[in-house]
Amino acid sequence: MNIYVINGPNINLLGTREPEIYGKETLESISKKCIEIASKDGHDVTFMQSNYEGEIVDWIQNAITKKVDAIVINAAAYTHTSIAIHDALKSYSGYKVELHISNPHLRETFRHISYISSAVDTIVAGLGTDGYSHVIELLVRFPVLQNKAK
């Protein structure tokens, strides 16, 4: 499998931004852990982060043309605002996971609405930064998910 992990605005600040909510682990350490998990079984993981909505849309569209098997997306604040990311995800036919480090439903009410949830196959929220590695493990180790991704 080839998996894109796409991260939205401010995720580059993990480890320093509101550690009481997001923890102290950095995006770089999360990325290394996920790449290691996937590579054990011969799978590829590509981590990306952008503060720019259009770049995230471009990456999703790139996943279509490159025939990427699955997208894990933490759209961050764009989860609650971006119809463009929603539409790009709807165009992608591989397996899609919406990921949140915290549980948005336990936070401010504006975070309770996700514009991308209706465009993904599953949602993982509230597992902290470990959610990333758990999702990668599930994607690479369960044939049902691999078949859906193809």
State the fourth-level CATH superfamily.
Dehydroquinase, class II
Mean pLDDT: 89
Shape: globular
As a percent range, the share of helical residues equals: 25-40%
**What is the CA-based Rg, rounded?**
14 Å
Task: Determine the structural class based on helices, strands and strand pairing.
Answer: alpha/beta
What's the N-to-C terminus distance?
9 Å
Order of helices and strands: EHHEHEHEEHH
CATH architecture label name? 3-Layer(aba) Sandwich
Strand content: 15-25%
How are the strands of the biggest sheet laid out side by side? 2-1-3-4-5
Structural summary, described in words:
Helix 2 runs parallel beside helix 5 (130-141) and helix 3 (53-65) runs parallel beside helix 4. 39% of the residues lie in helices and 18% in strands. A five-stranded parallel sheet has the order 2-1-3-4-5, with helices on both faces. Helix 4 (83-91) links the parallel strand 3 (70-74) and strand 4. The radius of gyration is 14 Å and the shape is globular. The protein is an alpha/beta fold. The chain has helices at residues 19-22, 27-40, 53-65, 83-91, 130-141, 143-149, and strands spanning 2-7, 44-49, 70-74, 95-100, 122-125. The chain starts with a strand and ends with a helix. It has a single domain, classed as Rossmann fold (3-Layer(aba) Sandwich), CATH 3.40.50.
List the helices and strands and how they pair.
Blueprint lengths: L1 E6 L11 H4 L4 H14 L3 E6 L3 H13 L4 E5 L8 H9 L3 E6 L21 E4 L4 H12 L1 H7 L1
Parallel strand pairs: 1-2, 1-3, 3-4, 4-5
Name the descriptors:
single chain, 150 residues, alpha/beta, Rossmann fold, five-stranded parallel beta sheet, 6 helices, 39% helix, globular
